[in-house]
Amino acid sequence: MGEVVEAGKENFEECIASGVVLVDFWAESCRPCVALAPRIVEIASERPQLKVVKLDVAKARRLCMSYRVGGLPTLMIFRDGQEAARLTDPSLTRAKLDQWLAEQLDGGQLDGGQP
User: Fold this and answer.
1) Which of the residues are catalytic?
2) What burial class does residue 92 get, using C-beta atoms within 10 Å of its C-beta: 0-12 exposed, 13-18 middle, 19+ buried?
3) pTM of the entire predicted model
């Protein structure tokens, strides 16, 4: 796929319904979210088998409440519509995100051969 899909409350369930999907719950007021935005785009291009979705929490508050998103940034991996993994970390860095993603998607093997 290679691109980031902007989801809203109208199409979110459809976006996560099939396959492996990384969802970035973000807000413009969240500095770590904004700082990680370029990395989210890179992940989409590096992993074409992974659907990458961004959801602006300010535009979908009830939806975020239903998924118990209590802090930002929050990233979730869905497999065929079911939550498979979650990462919420107010001090999330690119390195932490990459490590978590590798653990979830690559069976614990980090990209670049790092331990």
Assistant:
1) 30, 33
2) buried
3) 0.91
